[in-house]
Design goal:
Largest sheet of chain A: none
Oligomer: heterodimer
Distance between the termini of chain B: 34 Å
Number of strands of chain A: 0
Radius of gyration of chain B: 23 Å
Number of strands of chain B: 23
InterPro entries (chain A): ATP-dep_Glu-Cys_Ligase-2, DUF403
Organism (chain A): Paracoccus amoyensis
Radius of gyration of chain A: 20 Å
Strand order of the largest sheet of chain B: 3-23-22-19-18
Helix content of chain A: over 70%
Order of helices and strands of chain A: HHHHHHHHHHHHHHH
Structural class of chain A: mainly alpha
Pfam families (chain A): Alpha-E (PF04168)
Protein name (chain A): Alpha-E domain-containing protein
Chain lengths: 318, 469
């Protein structure tokens, strides 16, 4: 497979997952602003969310005021925001168009229809669109693409690259969303364990479509420890750090097996090591270590694996 | 002017169109609109779009698709087929000759200036004979019809003729929407084209290639207006679609960068023009090509299709000599005629053309896509006079042809069905054998009375049928 093809498949996966994350972020923001707030009003919370996604400066520069309309425009439609839903879907479709020979017609169809639908929404009056509709559109569209990939793509190296993109992006996104929760949303220690704390955890779960799954898995009350366990170490939870990393390792193993000894496996080796390190922890150890410190370590690991994927496969051995 | 309508012979519907005629007559209007919308939806979903240059607006534009097919019977097609293959053989013989001894020029049949000073003549490949002596592997020949048995060649395309994806997709969409038509009529298939193209490319593998050759399609990238076609063909042929950045030269060979390291490439079907192929040999600012590619080509490490320099055969000035080539190289009588052409660098022709501008079609020698031309009978006095000044300034840049009474075929229009002018581009493949799939791309001028079929000028496309016996 051409290195450029592999790179496009990898980034197609990443961008689709990133679009999904942006939509979920919008959803979290919406819900949190419906709460009686902590300190400086809802603007503060929005700002925290933007900070977590690394786009706060860009937003302040372009819009200034954090009105709901501005934020919705910025997170959903704005092409100047590289992490907006529209920008990510467009990039995913662009990657797909470049490597159409590597996609089945069903996958292309789903991807292209998503984009055409997006173009239609962009032409609509903004006041006629609510945030819930935008989030629903995004999660439904990305699921359709995902479904088409699962149902029709050959299980070959291209499949591994796509899923590697999905897996690494998802691991990164869940980690960042968790980080928002403890590092940004709840700035002072006395809020821990309060009603607000619990409510925010609920919002996080909901935004990951994991609200019900959580109850199936743990039952009873929502506690910080259990939610963190669910999103970090639970191998059944589809978006947990463990699951996402495990799937990434699985895809890297697939590539290593397929390509044999002639191709370097430094990404696979690194990912194995990170997974082992994650599995050696339990949730108490993570809280003792400090959630934020742990998440920073994890995000760093994902970045390192991503760089090694690039070096092993995407430069074409020259 | 009288135009030949391909559906009729006198007042009677011709046999090849008999069942189609019934189909149209019994079709309810709302059904037609529904199907038209369905067709457009299909084109957009598949992503068969093209870009119109310099107009802004939506970059993803559809070429209008007309659901009424154009039909040829076996007798008509056999004659076309023989004529097209004959022309393809002559064009390749000419290329072999002008990059070799230049016999046709020594014999005084073609002026040396038109060949050796032609912009498309590549001095860099003089004396290099590509595998099997084939320079142009895919030749698109544009044909028009003016009467029952009168076909004329309008131009030859020896470099990288586009549009074949429309031939295939038009058929695909017609079969999907109107399967009963294909049961009622016995229509020769065209879907073997990608397979034939792959075989053609493999048959011209370079001398240094000992195993089964690896073929690729080289595209300028996804911003190119024909990118859909490039990816479509790569997909159906099962070969990689590469950009210049994916290829590199190492020693005697060309390699592509893959996830498993470098992989050797033997045959490149390139969809980029000569000047961009190799910045070390041609345009130094080209980012689309592969540095060092021409050295590998010259030493037999890779085949390039069409071969660099093939463009000299399809120039509008060389065009007038193709019948001469057929007689000179093949010793045969041309089966398909050229359109009468006046070349404005000859005094007599110049005088004739300037005196008759309102009746003629005048084209730039290197123009394409329907740009930079004058259709005398369809132009205002001012337009003609403006064009006259351009011609006077540089006569040798122009040729002129009579305004042809282009045939019409029935076409769906707002009010129902009406005759519209059409042309035809079949795609001839040249490798170890010369192959032609029964069909081609029919372009139709959708505006009433218009004779310009180019998609950039409001033209559409139709499925083209060849009926089997």
């Amino acid at each position: 497979m051409l290195s450029r093809t592999a790179a496009n498949l990898f980034w197609m996966g990443r961008h689709l997952e990133r679009a999904d994350t942006a939509a979920r972020l919008l959803d979290v923001g919406q819900r949190i602003t419906l709460m009686p707030n902590t300190e400086a009003g809802y603007q503060n919370e929005w700002n925290s969310l933007l900070q977590a996604s690394g786009t706060a400066d860009l937003f302040a520069e372009k819009y200034g005021d954090s009105t709901e309309e501005n934020i919705q425009e910025f997170i959903f439609f704005d092409r100047d925001n590289p992490s907006s839903v529209a920008a990510c879907l467009e990039k995913a479709r662009e990657s797909g168009r470049i490597v159409r020979t590597a996609l089945t017609s069903q996958v292309w169809d789903a991807l292209n229809m998503t984009y055409q639908e997006l173009r239609k929404m962009e032409r609509k009056q903004r006041s006629k669109l609510d945030a819930a509709a935008l989030t629903d559109f995004t999660t439904a569209s990305t699921s359709t693409v995902r479904g088409a990939i699962n149902a029709t793509q050959l299980r070959n190296d291209g499949w591994h690259f796509m899923n590697l993109g999905y897996g690494l992006e998802r691991a990164d996104a869940t980690a960042r969303l968790l980080d928002v929760k403890y590092y940004v949303l709840l700035p002072r220690i006395e809020f821990v364990g309060s009603g607000l704390d619990t409510y925010q955890w609920q919002v996080i779960l909901r935004s990951l479509s994991a609200h019900r799954s959580y109850h199936w898995a743990y039952g009873g009350d929502i506690t910080a420890g259990q939610v963190a366990d669910f999103l970090i170490l639970n191998g059944e939870s589809p978006r947990s750090l463990l699951t996402s990393l495990y799937e990434s390792v699985w895809n890297l193993e697939g590539l290593a097996r397929r390509y044999g000894d002639a191709v370097p496996t430094s990404a696979r080796d690194k990912a194995r090591e990170s997974l082992a390190s994650l599995q050696s922890r339990d949730i108490d150890m993570i809280f003792d270590e400090g959630l934020h410190e742990f998440l920073s370590w994890f995000i760093g690991e994902i970045g390192a694996i991503s760089t090694l994927v690039h070096e092993d496969y995407l430069l074409g051995g020259s | 002017m009288d135009y030949y309508n391909e559906m009729y012979s006198g007042d009677k519907v011709r046999e090849p169109y008999a069942r189609l005629s019934e189909w149209v007559e019994t079709m309810p209007a709302d059904f037609r609109q529904m199907k038209q919308a369905e067709a457009e939806e299909l084109f957009r979903r598949i992503g068969i779009t093209f870009a119109v240059y310099g107009e802004g607006g939506d970059p993803d534009r559809l070429i209008p698709f007309d659901m009424m097919p154009r039909v040829f019977d076996q007798t008509e097609w056999r004659k076309l087929e023989r004529g097209i293959k004959q022309r393809a053989r002559a064009l390749n013989a000419f290329l072999r000759d002008v990059y070799g001894r230049g016999e046709i020029i020594r014999a005084g049949r073609i002026p040396a200036r038109l060949v050796y000073q032609n912009e498309a003549y590549e001095k860099a490949v003089v004396g290099v004979v590509p595998p099997r002596g084939v320079y142009s592997h895919i030749i698109g020949i544009d044909l028009v019809r003016t009467g029952k048995d009168e076909f004329f060649v309008l131009e030859d395309n020896c470099r990288t003729p586009s549009g074949v994806s429309y031939m295939l997709e038009n058929r695909e969409i017609m079969m999907r929407m109107f399967p009963q038509l294909f049961r009622q009529n016995r229509i020769e298939p065209v879907d073997q084209y990608p397979e034939l193209l792959r075989r053609t490319l493999e048959s011209v593998a370079p001398p240094k290639c000992k195993d089964r050759p690896t073929c690729v399609i080289l595209t300028p990238g996804h911003f190119n207006s024909a990118y859909y076609e490039h990816s479509f063909l790569a997909n159906l042929m099962g070969v990689e679609l590469v950009e210049g950045q994916d290829l590199f030269v190492d020693g005697e060979f060309v390699y592509m960068r893959t996830t498993q390291g470098p992989k050797r490439v033997d045959v490149i079907y390139r969809r980029i023009d000569d000047p961009f192929l190799d910045p070390l040999c041609f345009r130094t600012d080209s980012m689309l090509g592969v540095p060092g590619l021409m050295d590998v080509y010259r030493s037999g490490g890779v085949s390039i299709c069409s071969a660099p320099g093939a463009g000299v055969a399809d120039d509008k000035a060389i065009y007038t000599f193709v019948p001469e080539m057929i007689r000179f190289y093949l010793g045969e009588k041309p089966i398909l005629n050229n359109v009468q052409t006046w070349t404005l660098w000859k005094d007599d022709d110049y005088k004739h053309v300037m005196a008759n501008l309102p009746d003629l079609v005048v084209k730039e020698v290197h123009g394409s896509g329907g740009y930079g031309m004058l259709v005398g009978p369809k132009s205002t006095k001012e337009e003609i006079e403006t064009f006259r000044k351009k011609v006077e300034a540089n006569p040798s840049n122009y040729i002129a042809q009579p305004t042809l009474a282009l045939s019409t075929t029935p076409t769906f229009v707002e009010e129902g069905i009406a005759p519209r002018h059409v042309d035809l581009r079949p795609y001839c493949l040249c490798g170890d054998r010369i192959e032609l799939v029964p069909g081609g791309l029919t372009r139709v001028a959708l505006k009433e009375g218009s004779l310009v079929v180019n998609s950039s000028q409001g033209g559409g496309v139709k499925d083209t049928w060849v009926l089997s016996e």
